[in-house]
Amino acid sequence: MFRAVSTPLAQKFITGAVATTGLGASYLLYQDSITANAMTAAEHGLHPPAYGWSHNGMFETFDHASIRRGFQVYRDVCAACHSLDRIAWRNLVGVSHTASEAKAFCEELEYDDEPDDEGAPRKRPGKLADYLPSPYENEQAARAANQGALPPDLSLIVKARHGACDYIFSLLTGYPDEPPAGVVLPPGSNYNPYFPGGSIAMGRVLFDELVEYEDGTPATTSQMAKDVTTFLNWAAEPEHDDRKKWGLKALIVTSSLYLVAIWVKRFKWQPIKNRKIRFDPPKK
Amino acid sequence: MSFIASLFQRNSIYVATIFGGAFAFQGFFDVAVTKWYENHNKGKLWHDVKGKFLDGGDEDEDDE
Fold first, then answer.
1. Which of B41, B45, B59 to mutate against chain A (most A CBs within 10 Å)?
2. Is the Cβ–Cβ distance between B59 and B50 less than 8 Å?
3. Where is the chain membrane-spanning (chain B) (predicted)?
4. Residue B52: its chain A contacts at CB < 8 A?
């Protein structure tokens, strides 16, 4: 291996070089973390911790009670600003609500109907096949109501952000009471360390006891954030539970076939590998 | 001739055996996997938590 460094001078030199590199790197990383300039930690947002979601893992389904509570949070809170374009009322049936409950939700709403004989627009009550309504008519209206910021559609938000559920949960629960000293925010924006750049147009929206859960779960801020995040994860991956079940089946079948293939190979090769080839030179 | 060997005598029987076997296997396999999966995730699935929200009301009508 290595020859031991013999002279004391060389040893001191190596120690010094290691210490300088370590201290230099720490200093640069620290410098990087205290400004929000391009390509710094603050620009990329604080990394969320990894939470133990009950749907983490190869064979774990969503917690459907949580999806249901999360839908309630979405409907009562987030739906005031965020659309959920890709979810229709029928998607809730058998996932978090019964068909009659979902029908009751959509029948309260009005959707565009076919125009009448004079071409005048008409309205009709919602059907299960209708998609969830948007809070704003169009993007301009959404921006006008939110100081120029567009609340993104939440259908695929869990898939669309690094950190997925961990990020959404951290974002919703991560608003400090005061921005840290020295942080200057543009008007109408709020400080959130998890949001890249730290300045987000959405204020804190979840506060303890904001909603009342029908199953009696205490509606703390973190409980609501967890439930709405689970709901949004379901909205982004409605196939999730089935996909994991199919994955399990695929694993069982393919690994069995793999073992069978190995067995067949050995079976066929056994006589070939075990045979003994002998050359009998012709006798003169 | 053994029973297994008799399956290989005629192509029609051979193909029918494969198709029938696949059909029977997937039914059995799907039931077994679903059973394990639903047991593994007991308490989180909709049909487990449904009762908690509906308090015995309109349990089984048109809904899944």
1. B41
2. yes
3. 12-33
4. 65, 215
d(CA B38, CA A231): 20
Q: In this structure, are residues A220 and A179 in contact, taking their beta carbons and an 8 Å threshold?
A: no
This prediction's pTM: 0.84
DSSP of A14-38: HHHHHHHHHHHHHHHHHHHHH---T
Separation of CA A180 from chain center: 27
Q: Where are chain B's structural domains?
A: 25-52
Give the mutation candidate from A53, A54, A64 for the B interface (greatest B CB count, under 10 A): A64
Tokens representing residue A167 in the block = 């990020």
Q: Using the predicted structure, report yes or no on whether residue B62 has a pLDDT greater than 60.
A: no
Domains plus CATH for chain A?
54-86+155-257 (1.10.760.10)
How far is CA A95 from each of CA A113, A122, B40, B48, B59, rounded to the nearest angstrom? 28, 32, 18, 11, 14
The model's confidence at residue B35, banded by pLDDT at 50, 70 and 90, is: very high
Say what the pLDDT of residue A182 is: 86
Interface contact flag, B52 A63, Cβ < 8 Å: no
Inter-residue contact A84 to A153 (CB < 8 Å): yes
